[in-house]
Amino acid sequence: MRRIPPALLVPAVLGLLFLVLPLVGLLVRTPWTSVPRLLAAPDSLNALRLSLVTATLATVLSLVLGVPLAWLLARVRFPGRRLVRALVTIPLVLPPVVGGVALLLVFGRRGLVGSWWGLSLPFTTAGVVVAEAFVAMPFLVVAVEGALLAADLRYEEAAVTLGASRWTVFRRITLPMVGPGVVAGAVLCWARALGEFGATITFAGNFPGRTQTMPLAVYLALESDPDAAILLSLVLLLVSVAVLVGLRGRWIGEGGMA
Amino acid sequence: MSLRARVVVERPRFRLDAALEVADGEVVALLGPNGAGKTTALRALAGLTQNRGSVVLDGEVLDRVPPERRRVGVVFQDYLLFPHLSVVDNVAFGPRCRGTGRAAARREAMEWLERTGLAEYADVKPRSLSGGQAQRVALARALAVHPRLLLLDEPLAALDAGTRLEIRARLRQHLAGFEAATVLVTHDALDAMVLADRIVVLERGAIVQEGTPAEITRRPRTDYVARLVGLNLYRGRAADGVVELAAGGRLSVDAPVTGEVFVAFPPSAVALYAQRPEGSPRNVWRGTVMGVERQGDRVRVELSGAPPVVADVTPAAVAELELLAGQPVWAAVKATETHAYPAQV
């Protein structure tokens, strides 16, 4: 076997430790004896349920809006396409708190859209979904667009010569063929939504049972009840890992259409 | 005439401009080297590439008709069967798109599969088909929309040599039974000869020759065609039975031609000698061996000289003459074995 250069091996191992150690710390410091008491607390259960529900709804919203957006970017030539692509990815690099402020300015009671449709989104569960989708949807769009660009366009052309309209081509050829890419994008999107903190607390606030998701509960508990914070973090970690592993075995692991 | 088309496609440093007419039931092969524009021409006919010319099918101008409403069947190179659909759903795709109900479309697709002898594969995914089977499914899928024009892009290129012969024969049967116009693209002369009623030779975006396979074989008009059909081809000026060749040298021919002519003869008509042969009414000239290549039970020898020539000799002759690259030899061709014909049609 060829020797691995130490200049690469040492930083690589350090990097791995850096990523794994905090997770180990979480496991080591978990107050196992008080687990039943903490888990039975209604606030924890509410926060967990709310997180799962809102992250899933945010992912559904992102799929419904994001897949067509990705298709538009990958398949239709229009002026300013590069600009649109840049705009779509802004939430990826924007500090989430800024996103929350921006959402308030638009959907708030006196916001651009909020004052016009008379619906109050901020500080509601729906607001949580909106904040999470705003931050997480770009992950899905980028992943799906990448899958669309990598797909063999000739299959779509073959479908067109058989008489398929653009909508039929999308529904029966494009979407099934980029399926694994869409699933991967949805998983990324869901994981990002599950962990969303900044935009949520800014736009939706921190009301237990209504807008207090797991990350917010963890942050709050860290001051009042550190043991609870550790346990909630562990639960969040386990849920994320479980979903990733489950999906990987099912779809992602198969690796694209041949 | 069923198809009357002029395809004009302009790309940076490439221009395709070709006029095509194909009758109902006729099979026309677009034959040409890689990069000649064959596939581009096919795509323009199908409406997948912008055509600055015009496509008229059964009297209808298709230039503003989008590809999904042209009813032009295409068998693509690599066949492009949808990998996520079963064989029968691949074939039923076209009828479904044209508004046939799910059950009726499947029934129709099954009929096509039975006709091509693939009914037992109806429910498998395309990836488990052999190349020949995939080609038949692709053909069935294209025919299932009852196309007014059938286009085939290198239909045999993806097959290995062993199955190619049988599949070529079978494809010929299917094409013979198809009543509308067919255009197929190939770079293989044999495929074109076997499958097509008429051959159109495309080089660098322009048609350089068209005719029946027999005409093309007997009277090639470019080096490419001559090499494809395995002939030595020269252009020159004929007077009194002697042609002064543009490539250098002269050849006596056995035809009453004058003016600009082509002279063609097969490599097997060329004899090679170590010394200048004496006393026969032959074309004899000196050449240098450039390459020696075994082809089946013959050996193909490439000579430079005036003119350069390709000869087919026996392995025994190669050994006897000690033919190696760089070796000088004499080439001889009987006037009666040459074929001379006017360059202007």
From TrEMBL, chain B:
Matches recorded under SUPFAM superfamilies: MOP-like (SSF50331), P-loop containing nucleoside triphosphate hydrolases (SSF52540)
Superkingdom: Bacteria
Domain Mop: 278-342
Domain ABC transporter: 3-229
GO cellular component: membrane
Keyword Metal-binding: no
Protein name in UniProt: ABC transporter ATP-binding protein
UniProt cross-references to SMART domains, sorted A to Z: AAA
Keyword annotations from UniProtKB, A to Z: ATP-binding, Cell membrane, Ion transport, Iron, Iron transport, Membrane, Molybdenum, Nucleotide-binding, Transport
GO biological process, one term: molybdate ion transport
Signal peptide: none
Alphabetical list of InterPro entries matching this protein: AAA+_ATPase, ABC_SmlMolc_Importer, ABC_transporter-like_ATP-bd, ABC_transporter-like_CS, ABC_transpr_FbpC, Mo/tungstate-bd_C_term_dom, Mop_domain, P-loop_NTPase
One Pfam match: TOBE
GO molecular function (one): ATP hydrolysis activity
PANTHER family: SPERMIDINE/PUTRESCINE IMPORT ATP-BINDING PROTEIN POTA, SPERMIDINE_PUTRESCINE IMPORT ATP-BINDING PROTEIN POTA
